């Protein structure tokens, strides 16, 4: 018998759970796209998008997903043949490097593996060795969605400055914006990329690139910036349609407005704290489970290096796949696959999974997902230590004081 009937819970690291309020905002007919209320509503988005990113700089919006955001950033930062230094702390750092390379950008990758943070001493050494200043920009993920490693962006900026290098700093915040604390201007970030389907709680379809005035001035002559990807018209649009190089994505814009309202009403510091506490509950559960089975472990050993939006973990093959299937089919909770940890054709692939806790998520969602996971371990005879649910509940109780 299945107990999955009822409202399912998508505990994957994006697309995240879409709030009813966002869905209701999107559920309306197409408006006048030439004049009237839509124009004023969109004007209200820009200051809130700057606020959630922690910047007074520019923001360009594109119809697309996170990969579109990468391409927009690449197209505006670089000309063909210019060099990027990419720091990879998981699959998505490597993927951004591949996207840049495919566009004709010369890419140097510092690959720090799948479970350890970036070594800023290595970064500084590479930049010091680039005496001719050929590296145009340093690209990295704030949170790598596959590995769940969180990069200390302020520390990275200090390493670039210590090397005395003029490289721009570009950061992928697709998995962290609206979940983990991020302060673009305070941390010296020049270009930032995100999308709407994770912490911004809106169905996939919008990508964003924030950039400083200094970045705009330094990147004004890119030969990769085609009419669609060029960010100039999207911040200085004389006509409304130019914000999207065509018809506006009206339903998504209504949803985004509702999502930003929800973030503003809760307060961004409170949003960050909520994610911090719920992540801590997940970590507490894993600590208990792993005490009874060394095959169970979080991918990132040091808590300060872990994302607050997603937890990557291993259970030992084939138990991660077995557990994911049981949770979805028997209990209505969908967990994330272990992306990038092993090829899907390899037996090791079935030993990894991810728990998403981003965006529109609260205590009962997180505690419920953990309880379902433990029920699955019991049903499948997967060895695990006791006390996980009590430990998670204690974290939640302390965070709610």
Concise synopsis of the structure shown:
48% of the residues are buried. α6 (153-162) links the parallel β5 and β6.
Question: How would you characterize this protein structure?
Answer:
By secondary structure, the chain is of the alpha/beta class. The protein folds into 2 domains: 9-16 and 267-399, Aspartate Aminotransferase, domain 1 (Alpha-Beta Complex); 31-265, 3-Layer(aba) Sandwich (Aspartate Aminotransferase, domain 2), CATH 3.40.640.10. The chain is built from 13 helices and 12 strands. The chain has helices at 20-26, 37-53, 66-77, 91-102, 120-129, 153-162, 213-218, 232-235, 250-266, 268-291, 319-331, 363-379, 388-399; strands at residues 9-11, 58-64, 83-88, 106-111, 135-141, 168-172, 191-195, 205-211, 297-298, 310-314, 333-337, 352-356. The strands form 2 sheets. It has a 7-stranded mixed beta sheet with strand order 2-8-7-6-5-3-4, with helices on both faces. A 5-stranded mixed beta sheet has the order 1-11-12-10-9, sandwiched between helices. Helix 4 links the parallel strand 3 and strand 4. Helix 5 (120-129) runs parallel beside helix 6 (153-162). The protein is globular and about 60 Å long. The model has no long low-confidence stretch (mean pLDDT 96).
